[in-house]
Amino acid sequence: MRSLVTGATGFIGSAVARALITAGHQVRVLVRPSSDLRNLKNIDVEIIEGDLVDPDSLLHTVVGMDFVFHVAADYRLWVPDPDVLYRINVTGTRSLLEAARLADVQRVVYTSSVATLGLNPDGTPADEATPVSLADMIGHYKRSKFLAEQVATEAAATGQEVVIVNPAAPVGPRDIKPTPTGQMIVDAASGKMPAYVDSGLNIVHVDDVAHGHLLAASEGKSGRRYILGCENMSLAKIFSAVAAMTGVRAPKLKLPVAPLLPVAYAAEAVARITGKSPMLTVDGLKLARKHMYFSNQRAIDELDFCPRPAHDALRDAVEWFSANGYLK
User: Residue 78 has what pLDDT?
Assistant: First the structure.
């Protein structure tokens, strides 16, 4: 089998590329000329330069592929120009799906996010069928991913083989940026997390998310969404687990979100002047008001998805960050 992975230089994408190689696939990866290639070091992939915002670079990239794993996305909660998010996440997804259709690719697995899903008002775990609309999306990142997922769903409705996966909060090795969740773990493991808000995430190992992509390619139903998650954990529980692994003190102070909003607005105002991303964002705080709890039962039932415990994912993340000099 021959498979293309977009976003293979990133956290989830590099895990997908590795999982495909282990499964015996010949792997091609689409990278931008400016991409950081550290996550592709020492793995056997064919590297093709191109860009999701350049449709002409996509068709020759997908020709000859059996599967396309579209993992690439612009994952930023704040950007100076929000249009960039929509060009990459929405228009780029449409262009890649059209290229895959023209090249007769057997199946596309589109990597969405639990950020596009609805949440239950009572805080119980949501699933793929929980009601949601564009109006529920907080911020341009979530709106762009919601619209991109609609593009994938519409392609499947026309007969193209497209399966959608919705990773929860993946953690583990090779989080080189790191992602917002990874940075939270770095800060907690470094003793730089003095307080927390009453929120929660669904933690899952990044390598299990990658394996879920392969399961979706072989077992998933076209046009159907699958949550790739594991364990719902409050931030307090996550920080306590990280503290136990590293010997640092877990944060004890729980802060309300509302008093922090003026600080976030000020931080974004400064960021617009300096061009540097703010440490605190308005959308991030608004999201922190919610418990992002989800059920992975559909993936278990239909894909035979079987992720390892969240504690193991956190441990692997801490060990990788420690070994690679992220913990100060």
Answer: 64
Q: What is the token pair recorded at 311?
A: 């504690």
Give the 3-state secondary structure of residue 57.
helix
Provide the terminal-to-terminal Cα distance of the chain, rounded to the nearest Å: 43
Residue type, 89: N
Residue count (the chain): 328
Residue 187 pLDDT: 93
Other beta carbons within 10 Å of 126: 21
Q: What is the pTM of this model?
A: 0.93
How far is it between the farthest Cα atoms of the chain?
A: 55
Give the pairing of strands 162-167 and 225-228: parallel
Q: How far is CA 9 from the centre of its chain?
A: 13
**DSSP H stretches of helix in the chain:** 11-22, 59-62, 83-86, 92-102, 139-157, 180-189, 206-219, 235-246, 261-274, 282-288, 297-303, 310-323
Q: How far is CA 191 from the centre of its chain?
A: 25
Instruction: Please name which of 82, 85, 65 lies closest in space to residue 73, comparing C-alpha atoms.
Output: 85
Helix H, strand E, coil C: the string for 70-137 is: ECCCCCCCCCCCCHHHHHHHHHHHHHHHHHHHHCCCCEEEEECCHHHCCCCCCCCCECCCCCCCHHHC
3-state secondary structure of 49: strand
Closest CA to 100 of 48, 142, 14, 161: 161
Domains of the chain: 2-175+202-231+293-308 (3.40.50.720)
Pull the structure tokens for residue 6.
């977009």
Task: Name the stretches of the chain with pLDDT < 50.
Answer: none
